[in-house]
Amino acid sequence: MAVSGTHPAGGPDEAAGGHGRQDTSPVRAASGVPQNAAAARALVTRLLAARAGGPDGKTADIATADATVADVTVADALLVTSELVTNAFRHGGGLTGFAAEVNDEGLLLTVSDASSTPPAVTVRLPQADHIGGYGWPLVRRLTQRLTVTFHPGGKHIVALIALT
Q1: What is the dihedral of CA 81, 54, 61, 107, to 10 degrees?
Q2: Residue 61 in 3-state DSSP?
């Protein structure tokens, strides 16, 4: 299953299908780059709901479905989505591509932006109050695999969130 936006400099390979599903054809949402983090979260929510619908392909409400994805896992996936997309807008010169797919490993997110600057980790003293700087460490902690690939005109960040 996959939902995708544009990939100006390439992107992930076509999805092999959802975990435990007979139908291995990708499921795609409307093409284009999400306008904001909320729109990206909506794409991921629809993708996870379609996965929860089972082999018949019917979409389930992930809040009420007897899904294989736990609520906390869905929350983690949406948090990672939100952080990566927000950082692309805030620090990466704008979101230039977005793709999400569910495969046998989990939820694979690809977020592309227009900056060749790598994500930064800000070291903070625990006793000090700080605003901001927590997103990238959260993404690193919540993902099973995280890669940053640079290309002319920016970078792709690929994050794998386990769904089991």
Answers
A1: -10
A2: coil
Specify the residue for token string 């007979």: 22
Residue 138: CB atoms within 10 Å = 14
Q: What is the pLDDT of residue 41?
A: 96
Distance CA 108, CA 93 (A): 22
How far apart, in Å, do the first and last CA atoms of the chain sit? Answer: 16
If DSSP codes are grouped into helix, strand and coil, which group holds residue 9? coil
CA–CA dist 19, 1 (Å, integer): 9
pLDDT tens, residue order, the chain (164 aa): 555 544 333 333 323 333 343 344 444 444 469 999 999 999 999 999 888 765 444 545 555 544 456 888 999 999 999 999 999 999 999 999 999 999 999 999 999 999 999 998 777 676 677 777 788 999 999 999 999 999 999 999 999 999 98
Q: How many helices (H) and strands (E) does the chain have?
A: 3, 5
Q: Which amino acid is at 112?
A: S
Q: Angle, to 10 degrees, between the axis of helix 71-91 and the axis of helix 37-52? A: 150
* Cα 35 to chain centroid, rounded: 15
Whole-number Å distance between alpha carbons of 93 and 148: 16
Residue type for position 162: A
